[in-house]
Amino acid sequence: ERHRRNRNASMYEADPIIDLRTGVSSLIPLPTPKEYQNGYDKKTGSPNTYSDLIQFIEETISKAHTTSKTCALRKELNTGLYLDYLAVMAIVQGKDHVRKNYFMSLQKDASGEHRWEFYPWDLDLTFGCLYTDEHLTLCNTFTHTDDPFFGRLPAGVNVTYPMTTAFNLLIDTVLKDKELLKETEKRICNMLKSNFWQKQILNLIKAYEEALLPEISSDTWDRNKSVDEFKKAVAEVRSFVSLRSQHLTKLFHCPQ
Predict the structure, then answer these.
(1) What is the pLDDT of residues 108-124, one digit of tens each?
(2) Residue 120 to residue 103: CA distance in whole angstroms
């Protein structure tokens, strides 16, 4: 409501109740309405129909992907906000928003047109923290050089269901459009130069560190078993901000 959004509009959560590796919530066409219900939890809007979601995926996203023509997609997607979304996920190295952990809602934009918007959540796999099958846990490895556009379709892989590849049809469709790809890269460069990423994010990390320090020793459930281990982890987050910025600046030839 603060952002002038309608809380009663259609909103879906990508929250598959079946095997995540099927790609059921990767915005790909599915065989029956039942599969859509398995992949997307409808939070608000008419509870008995998924017709708006199905239309968006099958008639808009899928056709745009097949034809490489994004005109209709741009009319149904709040494109500017979605490019911001992709840019932020690229900067923080988000990898968990491809097959789950996002909301989508059909909202009115500033011009009064209904367009789909996307909102990420559950962002533990960011800032260098990864999940690995080898360890079956989080943050045993650290990297700042992962693909900023994770979720694109690998070469030679067809869109089908079930889809075992970590892939998102909308991400791939948008980034296949050279104009939208270039605009996303531009937004990444601008965000990296922003006061928030240059200064405020480091102040935020420091503030959280100071607030959490007193709780670390007494919290037996915490991932960090000691204050020193916690401080080392915080230093890793802080280093990610600098290292990721340097990596993306070089990768996208951002103006200095």
Answers:
(1) 988 899 999 999 999 98
(2) 6
Residue 140 CB neighbour total at 10 angstroms = 12
Note the residue count of the chain: 256
Q: Which residues contact 241 (CB under 8 A, 6 or more apart)?
A: 127, 197, 201, 202, 205
Contact 173, 64 (CB under 8 A): yes
The single-letter DSSP state of residue 20 is G
- The DSSP element (H or E) to which 114 belongs, if any, is strand 114-120
Structural contact between residues 134 and 101, judged by C-beta atoms closer than 8 angstroms: no
Question: 1: which 2 tokens?
Answer: 């409501």
HSE value, Cβ hemisphere, 13 Å, CA-based, for 37: 7
Q: What is the DSSP string of 191-219?
A: HHTSHIIIIIHHHHHHHHHHHHHHHHTT-
- Is the bond leading into 255 cis (omega within 30 degrees of zero)? no
Q: Render pLDDT for 45-67 as a digit per residue (tens, 0 to 9).
A: 988 899 999 999 999 999 999 99
pLDDT for res 199: 95
141 contact partners, CB below 8 Å, separation of at least 6: 130, 132, 135
Give the residue from 104, 117, 83 showing the smallest Cα distance to 40: 104
